[in-house]
Amino acid sequence: MELKNTYYKKRLVNSSKKFFKSESFSSRKSSSDFRTDKYKFGRLGSMTKTNLPPNRINMAKSSNPKTMLSMMTIRYGKTKKQDHVLNDHQLKNTTIRIKNQGRDLASFREPQAKMSENIPESSPFDTAAVLPKGKNRIRTIGAAVGNLNGNRRKQFKKQIILPNTPSKRHTKERNSLSNFFLLDQKANKFLFESQDCRAMQNSNIMKISKIEFQVKGHCLQKKKLGKTMSNISADKLGLTEKMPNVCSKSRLLGEEIKEEERTTRNTSITSCRPSQNLVKEPEISSIQAEVDLEDKKESFLEETGISERILTKTFNVYGSNSHKITGENKSYGCSCGKATDPTLNGCIRAEEWLKYAFNGFSKSFSHKDQKVFQELVDTKVKNELSAEVENDDRIPITVCIENDLTRTFPTEEYYKPPEAKQTLFNVLKAYTLYDTKCGYVQGMNFIAASLLYHCSPDIAFWLLVSLMFDYNLRDNYEAGFTGIEDINAEISRLIAKNCPKLNKLFKETETDLSIFSFEVIMTLFGTAIPLSATGDFYDNFFKEGWNFFAKLIITFLSKLQKPLLKESDPWSIISIIKAHASPASNSNRSAEIPLVPLDWPALIKTASTMK
Amino acid sequence: MEKKKNKKVFLKVVIIGDSGVGKTSLIHRYTSTRFLQDFKPTIGAEFSNKEVVINGKTVVAQIWDTAGQERYQSLGISFYRGADCCGIVFDRSDHSSFENLDTWKNAFLKHGAPKEEGTFPFLVIGNKSDLDDGSLVKERDAQQWCADNGNLEYIETSAKDNTSVEEAFTKLIEKGMEREKVNLVELPDRMSQKNKTVNLQRDVAKDVNRKPQKKKCC
To answer: Which branch of life, at top level (chain B) (predicted)?
Structure first.
């Protein structure tokens, strides 16, 4: 037993060291791991029957908590320095994570307590103490039970609520050598979760009901703490009405903690405790709401084998009460003519997209999500938005968006009325505030506009979010444009494979296709495909992801093969391609380039049947 | 005639400046003599060629239109390099775009890395002069900035009214030619050395081919 324990300790310590050292914790590396061909494109032809794009499948298969974490980091946009302050919506998700910590910390309480002697001070295991002891502990944990599904809840009760009678299974596990791996895995998982605790410890996350203040260490250094505290007001989250007491308490506590921070730099975990005490009441009410959901979760888990944690997150994103995407607020007439019911907030297409978006978990769409969107839209931004938003752009983002409104699908009637422009502005503004790290980048406007053409603004917003995070579009927009290279590489690989003639031409003339592909990637063919046909594109893109994108490029280029093969100068080659890829392009319109008539819906159809 | 053709000069002109100041409109006005009503933001970069005769020399100016949003500046490495001259555009009705001239100039020098940092030919273009409601950036201020930044030349244009657009580009090209006094075929790095000569050879080859043909006819 002794031996086993040391072994276990070693592994745990090693893995923790490894983990903290490993850059997987920083998204840059992990996201680039992620962007390898395997993830981004899958092998062409390796599409499975599930119709899920390869990156989904990988995600589903991945049981490695590390990978999962990197997924999460990608999803939540953590960066290398981990120095961003989560925005409100992300904070909400953190709530769930921290709730889960309650559970996991507790279930690992025993082995952890024994081992903590050998583990250096900074180890995340210290965070065990985060759990309050005595009555409060049980009550807090009780609140956390709300997040567990049936079986686990029972188990939880056995292990935690009645701490003196450790479950047989638990003991068994620890005693069996064969289960070491399992334990290790769990421990690993625990490490991730304790990360948040660690952050909490470092930075004094204050947690009151669903309002959470995450103030990172760096904020403290920059003396931003006070600002952050006051910035995130409860009103912003729309909670004032519901829980006026809690809100006022939170403010008070904010002040308190501020004081505490000043006095104790290296804060002890105990300073988190007062907030823990406050948690219980509102959370218990939320337990009720989430009970119904649990059955669904379970069946989902069994079906897909996907980690519960990701699921929790996704459900959190999409709220707990499932709805069809009907809008009670206003009816939305979809312009593509595929709306089945005028009261729907999007056409049949948008519904289909939602099924694929968020890794296939977004089968429900709730008023919660509409609310989140609405909150983002209602957030007042002044011209100093650029300062608030962690973006190095000099021009306030809103100005930038406004500049582009008239330039998005400029020739389409649909976007001529000011109301349509305002809606587009709202979606882009909401995204800018949602993803403060990346913010608005030109090109997004075309994507948002294409989505908006088919559904209401809130759905368009969430679809955009999904595209950014789940379809890795974000890599393309972030400073450095890291995603573009991979896509370009994939495109040239496919050209070599499928269009030998063109490949030869491009090689001989040393044509650099990236001048053309950049725009297409950034706008997802937004400048090429007429607005009415973008639906066809997104139908496929949501299904297959970048796979389809690459196919379409190939189809498009092979259509142009004839005029291209006559050329021998790289510039004229690019001019021809560009003239076709953006018919309303800024350059070359006057040039005497004879345009090959392109029927985009047909092209898209051909591409979708391509293997 | 054929001699002249051989002296064809290729110049790369890069136009930079904040988003929405009218870079695309200017270029479009110059290359196709029309004012753009509906157009999209430039994403990445675009180029268009214009052949002009300046001082008896035929010049093919490859004018690069770049994206204005700051995020795209890091792309500059590929688009600015090999430039012979650079036009920095600002919107006279938008003072912040004027204040950003510094940043653009520095970004160009940093990413484009021209050989002669101090003397690289820039032209500062104040666009949208037609929007005169008294609050435009004053010529005096702009001249002052140019004087402070290595005696750059300044010109006020309006793509909408077609005021001084031709002039501005002619100036740019002249500056570029001064820089490239040697009649080199200058193409940007990206299209490799080979291409630099390909174009010329192609022209020469055509000429060569024609000559004997003519002779044969005679």
So the answer is: Eukaryota
Query: Residue A146's closest CA among A272, A45, A284, A329?
Result: A284
Q: Is B106 on the interface with A (CB under 8 A)?
A: no
Predicted ipTM of the assembly = 0.79
Q: Is A454 in contact with A349 (CB distance < 8 Å)?
A: yes
pLDDT per position as a tens digit, B60-86: 999 999 988 888 887 777 788 888 899
Q: What is the DSSP string of chain B?
A: -HHHHHT-EEEEEEEEESTTSSHHHHHHHHHHS---SS-PPP-SEEEEEEEEEETTEEEEEEEEEE--SGGGGGGHHHHHTT-SEEEEEEETT-HHHHHTHHHHHHHHHHHH--S-TTT--EEEEEE-TT--SS-SPPHHHHHHHHHHTTS-EEEE-BTTTTBSHHHHHHHHHHHHHHHT-S--B---GGGHHHHHHHHHHHHHHHHHHHHHHHHHH-
Q: What's the pLDDT score for residue A557?
A: 92
pLDDT at A108: 33
Shortest CA distance to A313 belongs to which of A492, A110, A75?
A75
Whole-number pLDDT of residue A109: 32
Q: Which residue of A has its CA nearest to B68?
A: A442
Record: contact B41-A568, CB cut-off 8 A: no
State the virtual CA torsion across A8, A13, A14, A15 in degrees, nearest 10: 90
More confident residue, B172 or A307: B172
Q: Which positions of chain A have pLDDT values less than 70?
A: 1-346, 360-366, 382-396, 584-592
Q: Under an 8 A CB cutoff, do B32 and A589 touch?
A: yes
Interatomic CA distance for residues A360 and B101, integer angstroms: 47
Question: What are the chain A neighbours of B199 within 8 Å (beta carbons)?
Answer: 569
Q: Which of A569, A587, A588, A589 to substitute to test the interface with B, most B CBs within 10 Å?
A: A587
Q: Does A586 touch chain B (CB under 8 A)?
A: yes
- Please tell me the distance from the alpha carbon of residue B35 to that of residue B22, in angstroms, as a whole number: 11
CB contact under 8 A, B199 and A512: no
Spatial contact of A312 and A100, defined as CB atoms under 8 Å apart: yes
- Per-residue tokens: A185: 């895995």
**pLDDT, position A335:** 60
Q: What is the DSSP string of A24-63?
A: GGSHHHHHHHHTSHHHHT--TT---TT---HHHHHHHH--
A479 contacts B67? CB cut-off 8 A: no
Q: Choose between B188 and B70: higher pLDDT.
A: B70
Name residue B60's beta-bridge partners: B10, B51
**Residue of B70, B43, B65 whose CA lies nearest to A522:** B43
pTM as predicted: 0.59
Structure tokens at A63: 């049981």
Residue-level pLDDT at B141: 93
d(CA A417, CA A367): 27
- Beta strands at A206-208 and A211-213: parallel, antiparallel or unpaired: antiparallel
Distance from C-alpha of B123 to C-alpha of A150, rounded to nearest angstrom: 71
User: Do the Cβ atoms of B41 and A479 come within 8 Å?
Assistant: no
Instruction: Write the DSSP symbol of residue A158.
Output: I
Q: Which residue of B has its CA nearest to A391?
A: B71
Contacts for B215 with CB less than 8 Å, ≥ 6 apart: none
